[in-house]
Amino acid sequence: MDTIHRGLNGVNVDTSRICSIDGEAGRLIYRGYDITELADLASFEEVVHLLWFGELPTRSELDALRRTIAFDLPEPVLDMLAGLPKGTHPMHALRTGVSMLSAFDDDPDGVDESNVRRIGLSLLGRVPALVAAHQRIQAGGAPVEPDPDASVASNLLRMVNGETPTDAAVRVMDVALVLHAEHGSNASTFVGRATASTLTDAYSAITAAVGSLKGPLHGGANAAVMQALEEIGSVEAVEKYVLDTLASEKGRVMGFGHRVYRVMDPRATILKDVSRKLAEESGDSKWFEMSLEMERVMEREMGARGKQVAPNVDFFSASVYRMLGFEKETYTPIFAIARVAGWMAHLFEQYADNRLMRPRLVYEGETGKAFAPIAQRG
Ligand code: CMC
User: Fold this and answer.
1) Hey, which of 191, 309, 337 would you mutate to test ligand 1's pocket, going by the most ligand atoms within 8 Å of its Cβ?
2) From atom 14 of ligand 1, which residue's Cα is the shortest distance away?
3) Gap between the Cα atoms of 15 and 187, Å rounded
4) Which residue has the least CA distance to atom 31 on ligand 1?
C-alpha cells in the first residue's frame, strides 16, 4: 500500500533556516529570535532584514533598506485598478496587480539572488500601495501619496485612511506586520516555493502565494472572523452562534485551530493583549468582549470533545484591525503585505538550492476501458 499523507500532514519537503515552530509549547522563532521579543522590540523592516539576511540590521543597514522601499505604482497598474468592477475583492485585485507588475520590470525572470532580492524590495512597498490604491479607488477616491520617509506600517495606514497616523497606531500596525511576516511551510509559502521550484519567476510565485492566502482556511480566516462577529452582534449571542456552528455539518468556528499548534498560537496571545489595550484606550470594547466570549465557549466545547483547538493568529487580529479602522475586506490583504517578507525569504532559499517539487497521487480511477469513436457514443 502506498502511504498517503493527506494535506501533506507531517511531511518534511526540505530543510530551512528561516523559521521554527514548536506547536506543543506554542513557540514561534524567526532566525533564532522568539516572536514575543520581536513583536515587543522590532519594527517590520528590522524583521524583513532578519528574515532575508539572517541577522538583525545595524542602523545603517536598516536605513539603507528603508530608503530602498518605494511605494510607486506604474500608471497602467493604477488604470487596471480603476477599471475593475465595483465590489472586486481586494485579494483578486492584489493578485492581479502583483502579476501585472512583472510586465513593468526590466528583469522579471532572473532567479539569481540579487535579482530576486531586488524584486522582493520592490514588492515590499508596491504590495501595500496596491492594497491601499484599490481600496481608495473602490471608495470613489484617488490613491493617497505615501510619505517616502515613513515606514511600511505608517504608509499603509496613511495610504488607506488618507491621514497621517498616530504613533500609537503605527506601533500596533508594526506589531501586526511583524507577527504575520513569516510562518514556515504554511499553505501559501509552500505554494510559493513549489511554484518557484519550476524555476519560474518570483512574480509568478508571489502571485500564486497571494491566491493561496486568500482561502478561508488560511489568511481569509481573519475577515471571516469579523464577518462572524458582525453577524453575531452581541456578547450574549456568541454562545448560540458557536454551538450552532459546531452542530452544523463540518462546522468550523473561524479563527480557531491550526495544523501545527496544539495550544494557543503565540501570535494570538500577543494580539489578544493588543486588542485588550486598544479596547481600553478607545472605549470601544464590543469586538474584544465578543472575542473573549467566543474563546471561552470554544475552550469549553473543544475541551469537552477532547480536541486541541485554540485561537490562531487570525482570531484576535480581526478585532485589532477593526479598531485600527480597517474594513474587513482589507484584513487578508494586510496579511499578504506582511507575508511578502516571509514568502520572499523562502524564495531566496528555494532558488539557491532548488529541487523541482513533484509529489504523486495514488490513482484510484478505472483502467482498461475500450475507446469508442464519437459516432458510437450516442
Ligand atoms: N472549529 C471547530 N472544529 C475545529 C476547528 C475549528 N476552527 N479546527 C479544527 N477543528 C476540529 C476538526 O473538526 C477536527 O475534528 P475531527 O478530528 O473530529 O474531524 C480536528 O479539530 C482537527 O481538525 P483538522 O481539520 O483535521 O485539522 P487541520 O490541521 O487539517 O486544519 C485548520 C487546520 C486551520 C484548517 C482548521 O483548524 C480550520 O479549519 N480552522 C478554521 C479556519 C482558520 O481559522 N484558519 C486560519 C489558520 S491559522 C493562520 C493562517 O494560516 O492563516
Assistant:
1) 309
2) 307
3) 16
4) 259
Pocket test for ligand 1, best of 212, 307, 316, 321 (most atoms within 8 A of CB): 307
Please state the atom number of ligand 1 nearest to the C-alpha of residue 312: 48
Q: What is the DSSP letter of 162?
A: S
CB of 218 sitting under 6 A from ligand 1: yes
Tell me how far the alpha carbon of residue 120 lies from the centroid of ligand 1, in angstroms: 31
Residue count of the chain: 378
- As a whole number of Å, the end-to-end CA separation of the chain is 39
Residues with a known catalytic role: 258, 314
Question: Domain 19-215+332-352's class?
Answer: mainly alpha
Dmax (CA) of the chain: 76
**What is d(CA 188, CA 342) in angstroms, rounded to the nearest whole number?**
10
pLDDT band (50, 70, 90) for residue 284: confident
Question: What are 350-371's pLDDT values in tens digits?
Answer: 999 999 999 999 999 999 999 9
Taking the C-alpha atoms of residue 346 and residue 159, their distance in angstroms, rounded to an integer, is: 28
For residue 265, the number of C-alpha atoms closer than 13 Å in the C-beta half-sphere is 23
- DSSP-assigned states of every residue in 321-366: HHHTT--GGGHHHHHHHHHHHHHHHHHHHHHHT-----------S-
For the segment 27-34, the average pLDDT, to the nearest whole number, is 98
Instruction: Name residue, grid cell 532584514.
Output: 49
pLDDT (tens digit per residue) in 231-251: 999 999 999 999 999 999 989
CATH topology match: 19-215+332-352 vs 221-323? no
> Fold for domain 221-323?
Cytochrome p450-Terp; domain 2 (1.10.230)
pTM: 0.96
pLDDT of 131 higher than 70: yes
Taking the domains of the chain in order of start, what are their residue ranges?
19-215+332-352, 221-323
Q: Is the pLDDT of residue 192 over 70?
A: yes
Instruction: Classify residue 163 by its DSSP letter.
Output: S
